[in-house]
Amino acid sequence: MKQISVIGSGTMGNGIAHVFAQNGFQVNLVDISQDALDKALLTIGKNLDRQVKKEAITEQVKLDTLNNITTFTQMEEGVKSADLVVEAATENPEIKLNIFKDLDTYCKEGAILASNTSSISITKIASVTNRPEKIIGMHFMNPVPVMKLVEVINGYLTSNETTDCIISLCDKLHKTAVPANDYPGFVANRILMPMINEAILSLQNGVAGVNEIDQIMKLGMAHPMGPLQLADFIGLDVCLYIMRVLQDGLGDDKYAPAPLLVNMVTAGHMGAKSGNGFYDWSNGMKDLKVSEQFTN
Question: Which one of 9, 189, 197, 202 is the catalytic residue?
Answer without folding.
Answer: 189
